[in-house]
């Protein structure tokens, strides 16, 4: 959170927002992209008081409607905090995740214009526990790689991801660069296994002291828990992961379609 001396009101003319009327990109998306970039470059800081819809509209010479759409999108991403009767405030960025698409963490974050990174907490070769063995359809005594990583977005810790992968399919996994390379990239390009689909189970838990310390949050705070089994094109389960995500920095997005 920004320190008190950082909390100041942003003036519209300081933003240097520019709209390209010849672009096929809607005005609201142009505004979102520019504000998102300003936050990413630390030219706008968490806790700063932002401009009103009217101020942005007057600055750009447009109606309030596209500005309102931009504010709604920024709010959904956690980049703007908007309370009734109060001016908008720059937020920390609550990362939305769309479960309709099978993407790696880094792929999804980069697609949203955010900066992902990772820290490897542990990489062990061990016998699979019952829950893991059942998810990966392993035989008695089969071994798995257990990879535990801390995931960051814009240098802020958001998730602890524990991946379990069959040792017989991924020999030498512990020698891969699991901080600089996407796990999905390693699976598809080094081990030549094409990913196809995944099944997720989503729930909520409270943070234990160890996990809270790693995620820089308070013990007992809400965490989103996602258990995911990923399959390749041969319908072989190749990863069973358990992710613990900070509830104040992560949201789930699921699209449901009614069948007729």
Q: Explain this structure to me?
A:
The protein has 260 residues and is of the alpha+beta class. It folds into two domains: 87 residues, Winged helix-like DNA-binding domain superfamily/Winged helix DNA-binding domain (Arc Repressor Mutant, subunit A); 159 residues, 3-Layer(aba) Sandwich (Chorismate lyase). Helix content is 25%, strand content 30%. It is built from seven helices and ten strands. It has a six-stranded antiparallel β-sheet. A two-stranded antiparallel ribbon has the order 1-2. The protein has a two-stranded parallel ribbon with strand order 3-10. Helix 1 packs across helix 3. It starts with 26 loop residues before the first helix and ends in a 7-residue tail after the last strand. The N terminus is likely disordered.
Give a quick summary of the entry.
The chain has two domains: 4-90, Arc Repressor Mutant, subunit A (Orthogonal Bundle); 95-253, Chorismate lyase (3-Layer(aba) Sandwich), CATH 3.40.1410. Helices cover 25% and strands 30% of the residues. It is built from seven helices and ten strands.
Descriptive key words:
disordered N terminus; 260 residues; alpha+beta; two-stranded antiparallel ribbon
Poorly predicted ranges: 1-7
| Strand percentage | 25-35%
Order of helices and strands: HHHEEEHEHEEHEHEEE
CATH evolutionary superfamily of the largest domain: Chorismate lyase-like
Spatial order of strands in the largest sheet: 4-5-6-9-8-7
**Proportion of residues in helical segments:** 10-25%
Number of self-contained structural domains = 2
Helix/strand class: alpha+beta
- Biggest sheet features: 6 strands, antiparallel
Give the count of helical stretches.
7
- The CATH topology annotation of the largest domain reads as Chorismate lyase
CATH architectural type of the largest domain: 3-Layer(aba) Sandwich
In one word, what is the shape?
elongated
Beta-strand segment tally = 10
Q: What is the CATH class designation of the largest domain?
A: Alpha Beta
